[in-house]
């Protein structure tokens, strides 16, 4: 039987290789990274910038070869097969559709602690210079398989007047959890009126009602200990989130509907104000003053649906894994040094008025000094032309509550955009779709999640 399976996998690999025969995935002496033409993830842009840096520093031999595939599914299938057989690209990122938890168990990635500790160069990476809670998200059983570069925090911003209408807390930085949400939303669920629950569709990693459901499911799965807890409390919490989802706009719509029968709808939470970078949070807080009206009131920041009152979470935005079979670990280390270096960490986070990605960055740097620069720049007063015209003595209450949350971080997911997780994309999503299509009830939904998750964790 095993022989037949091996023959089948070999044939499948041959077919995939033929279908991609125009792709030169061998980088020679260069590191390789795979992507598709229709989906250029953030890591592609980072690598392109790194390659330009290599050219400007006369280090063309350190460049990374970007291998382009025409079709994402074909690339993913081929990558899964090759990685399981010791092949694939040299570098991986958490944007890739791979079961990273299972690949780690199978020894597919380098222990980057060894690579970093064995470095004798003067610019050796000192991990104590970085946010430990975030960096430790890439550690499994004492080995460091992933290096996070940037992270983000989930926030919800609502109007004080609207929150008071439903007798909801209005304290800045209120710690909203899956445990206390039944009390927080009791009045709203009884009298939703004309107010929608949440704006936003969750695209590009943003928060939506669907994102909250994934957050709940993921909070009940421990990928490291291979345990799940889809119990009665989980069912009650899931049912409540599904009710809240009914009071949001269509989560699949590209642009949330803001008018219904000619009557404008207000949102309980406006995700357009929920920035986790203090620079942009502070500027949005200043801008929001001009947006306040009698229907919504001053903005109030909630931390977004934590597992419980003791959990303060964040998600990794960009992370790098290195193929265990690479022969170029020295070049992988050079790229990690660039990624974690002071220049790039400041640049990508939008400090010093060097704005990347078209005018701003919502993600936060893992380098402590770069994060301190974000806080420093949040104090700057910027006019409409983008020039600094002064410095604030004190940040807004919104930004201060954000910083308090970050100081308490103790739970970090390797994904900020949960839709990119292999588990969510391939295990959870099909079952949720069956529920939304009316094919199964909530009991069958939970039963299906339980069975599928056990198979994913154990087989």
Please explain how this structure is put together:
- With 459 residues, this protein is an alpha/beta fold.
- The protein folds into 2 domains: 22-150 and 318-343, D-Maltodextrin-Binding Protein, domain 2 (3-Layer(aba) Sandwich), CATH 3.40.190.10; 155-312 and 416-458, D-Maltodextrin-Binding Protein, domain 2.
- The protein is built from 18 helices and 20 strands.
- It has helices spanning 2-19, 42-56, 72-84, 100-105, 112-117, 132-135, 160-165, 181-184, 186-190, 209-219, 232-246, 278-288, 329-340, 342-349, 368-378, 397-407, 422-436, 442-458; strands spanning 31-36, 64-69, 91-93, 139-140, 143-144, 147-152, 155-159, 174-177, 196-198, 221-222, 227-228, 259-260, 263-264, 267-269, 299-306, 313-322, 364-365, 380-382, 388-391, 411-413.
- The strands form 8 sheets. Strands 3, 6, 16, 17 and 20 form a 5-stranded mixed β-sheet that branches. The protein has a 3-stranded mixed β-sheet with strand order 7-15-8. Strands 1-2 form a two-stranded parallel ribbon.
- Strand 12 and strand 13 (263-264) form a beta hairpin.
- Helix 10 (209-219) runs antiparallel to helix 11, helix 12 (278-288) packs antiparallel against helix 16 (397-407) and helix 17 (422-436) packs antiparallel against helix 18.
- The protein is globular and about 65 Å long.
- Mean pLDDT is 85; it is low at 1-24, 250-263 and 354-359.
């Amino acid at each position: 039987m095993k022989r037949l399976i091996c023959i089948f996998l070999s044939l499948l690999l041959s077919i995939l290789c033929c279908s991609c025969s125009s792709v030169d995935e061998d980088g020679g002496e260069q590191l390789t990274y795979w992507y598709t033409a229709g989906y250029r993830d953030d890591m592609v842009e980072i690598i392109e910038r790194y390659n330009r840096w290599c050219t400007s520093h006369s280090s063309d031999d350190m460049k990374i070869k970007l291998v382009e595939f025409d079709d994402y599914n074909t690339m993913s299938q081929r990558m899964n097969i090759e990685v399981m057989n010791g092949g694939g690209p040299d570098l991986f990122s958490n944007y890739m559709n791979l079961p990273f938890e299972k690949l780690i168990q199978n020894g597919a990635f380098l222990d980057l602690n060894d690579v970093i500790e064995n470095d004798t160069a003067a610019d050796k990476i000192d991990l104590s210079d970085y946010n430990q809670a975030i960096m430790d998200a890439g550690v499994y059983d004492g080995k460091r398989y992933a290096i996070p570069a940037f992270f983000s925090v989930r926030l919800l911003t609502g109007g004080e007047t609207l929150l008071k209408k439903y007798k909801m807390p209005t304290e800045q930085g209120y710690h909203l959890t899956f445990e206390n949400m039944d009390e927080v939303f009791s009045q709203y669920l009884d009298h939703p009126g004309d107010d929608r629950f949440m704006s936003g569709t969750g695209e590009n990693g943003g928060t939506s009602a669907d994102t909250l459901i994934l957050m709940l499911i993921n909070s009940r799965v421990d990928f490291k200990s291979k345990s799940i807890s889809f119990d009665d409390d989980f069912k009650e919490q899931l049912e409540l989130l599904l009710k809240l989802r009914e009071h949001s706009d269509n989560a699949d719509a590209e642009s949330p509907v803001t008018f219904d029968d000619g009557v404008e709808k207000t949102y309980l939470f406006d995700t357009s104000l929920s920035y986790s970078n203090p620079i942009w949070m502070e500027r949005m807080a200043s801008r929001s003053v001009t947006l306040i009206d009698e229907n919504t009131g001053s903005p109030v920041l909630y931390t977004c649906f934590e597992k419980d009152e003791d959990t303060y979470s964040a998600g990794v935005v960009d992370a790098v894994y290195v193929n265990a079979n690479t022969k170029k670990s020295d070049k992988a280390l050079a790229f990690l040094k660039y990624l974690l270096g002071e220049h790039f960490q400041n640049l990508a986070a939008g400090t010093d008025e060097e704005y990347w990605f078209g005018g701003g960055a919502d993600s936060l740097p893992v380098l402590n000094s770069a994060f301190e620069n974000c806080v420093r720049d949040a104090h700057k007063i910027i006019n409409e032309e983008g020039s600094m015209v002064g410095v604030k003595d004190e940040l807004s209450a919104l930004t201060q509550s954000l910083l308090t949350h970050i100081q308490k971080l103790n739970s970090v997911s390797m994904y900020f955009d949960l839709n990119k997780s292999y588990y969510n994309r391939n295990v959870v999503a099909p079952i949720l779709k069956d529920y939304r299509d009316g094919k199964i009830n909530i009991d069958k939904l939970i039963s299906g999640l339980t069975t599928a998750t056990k198979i994913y964790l154990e087989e």
